[in-house]
Design brief:
This protein has two domains: 3-186, Beta Polymerase, domain 2, CATH 3.30.460.10; 218-345, no CATH class. It is built from 15 helices and eight strands. It has helices spanning 3-30, 45-55, 60-63, 77-90, 123-126, 146-157, 168-208, 218-226, 230-241, 252-264, 270-280, 284-294, 304-313, 318-326, 332-345, and strands at residues 35-42, 68-74, 91-93, 99-100, 115-121, 139-145, 245-246, 301-302. The strands form two sheets. Strands 1, 2, 3, 4, 5 and 6 form a six-stranded mixed sheet that branches. It has a two-stranded parallel sheet with strand order 7-8. Helix 12 runs antiparallel to helix 15 (332-345). It is elongated.
Length: 346
């Protein structure tokens, strides 16, 4: 294969890589798959030419299947199975060249873990004008967890291309670490399952009881907002009547701010929180109107969580407000508007 032919093939794959990356992101997002990172690359000219010459490759397109490479890095092992189903639904899989590295290890071995799929686009997609040029191109999609990726990255950084090149002492330590990483992956999976189970338990408790004596944490707070009671609804109605746009529900980042605000105010239970919310609800209208006036006619959404947070801030003195700001991420201009409105109306 001539240099010109190699460069032409890589140009095809550069366009393919870009389109494939965008498609995979859309597939994962549409199916609400949380991922840590998506990496992509097209093999570079020097690397490809060296491999062709070293292995005396005659048919590059069929013998080298990773000219386009996509790597999906996930949080949990169980997500790998979900992503596998999505890959199989959306692409043709070359089963002979795809591999699950875990299946190559004996029961008493630890090492590199990742799933590699060699894919090309399905016939129905290849009929679309934006995909027809990629009909005969292959790509490799790697799927692994963050911990699997970390181990592989460290292994790669040691620059030993073959197992035989690595000093035995280093090899032993590296593969001992592989066992620890694999165990940690299993423990994170258990934590995830337990977290889901606790959340479901809280939902049952919330339906049966007023939740007033439960401890305040992210899960109980989330459940409380999902089952908005009359006290929360009263705060929200005040927000809407003050001019804030209706936004049902809550935002997770605001829940963390509420937790911090409660800690500053010494609130440890829902009963105490409700009392403090009621204590300043009459000050909420002028505070919110002042905030809206400061943004000169721009819209401001009033979620359950945001309006609850503002009501809590009305209970803080200047020192507590300053401490709150140092512990949360809050845009400086919006914080100045919020702080001034709270300070002038509490």
């Amino acid at each position: 294969m001539t240099d010109i032919e190699i460069k032409g093939l890589l140009e095809e794959h550069e366009a393919f890589t870009e389109s494939l990356k965008i498609l995979i992101k859309k597939i994962l997002d549409a199916n609400k798959v949380k991922y840590h990172l998506i990496e992509w690359r097209t093999k570079d000219f020097d690397s490809l030419k060296e491999k062709i010459e070293r292995k005396k490759i005659l048919d590059v397109k069929s013998e080298i299947t990773d000219l386009t490479g996509i790597r999906i890095i996930l949080y949990y092992q169980s997500d790998i199975d979900i992503v596998e189903d999505l890959i199989r639904d959306n692409f043709k899989i070359d089963e002979d060249n795809s591999i699950n590295k875990a299946e190559t290890l004996a029961k008493n071995e630890f090492g590199y873990l990742s799933v590699h799929y060699i894919i090309n686009i399905k016939d129905e997609r290849s009929k679309l004008i934006e995909w027809k040029d990629f009909k005969n191109l292959n790509a490799e999609i790697q799927v692994r967890t963050i911990l699997q990726h970390s181990w592989a990255a460290i292994n790669h950084e040691l620059v030993y291309k073959r197992k035989e090149e690595m000093p035995q002492e280093l090899e032993r330590k590296l593969f001992k670490l592989a066992g620890l990483f694999e165990l940690a992956d299993e423990q994170f999976e258990e934590l995830k399952s337990r977290d889901n189970a606790i959340e479901e338990d809280y939902k049952v408790i919330r339906q049966e009881n007023p939740f007033e004596n439960e401890p305040l944490n992210l899960l109980t707070l989330k459940t409380d907002f999902e089952n908005a009671n009359s006290r929360l609804k009263e705060i929200v109605e005040v927000g809407y009547s003050s001019g804030f746009d209706k936004t049902n529900g809550y935002y997770k980042e605001e829940l963390s701010k509420i937790i911090i605000a409660c800690e500053i105010l010494g609130i440890t239970s829902f009963e105490t929180r409700y009392k403090i919310l009621n204590h300043r609800i009459d000050k909420l209208v002028p505070t919110l109107k002042s905030m809206l006036a400061s943004i000169r006619g721009n819209k401001w959404s009033g979620s359950y969580s945001f309006l609850t947070l503002i009501t809590l801030l009305l209970n803080m003195n200047d020192l507590q407000l300053k401490y709150f700001k140092t512990n949360v991420l809050y845009a400086d201009d919006l914080w100045q508007i919020t702080k001034d409105a709270v300070a002038n109306n509490r």
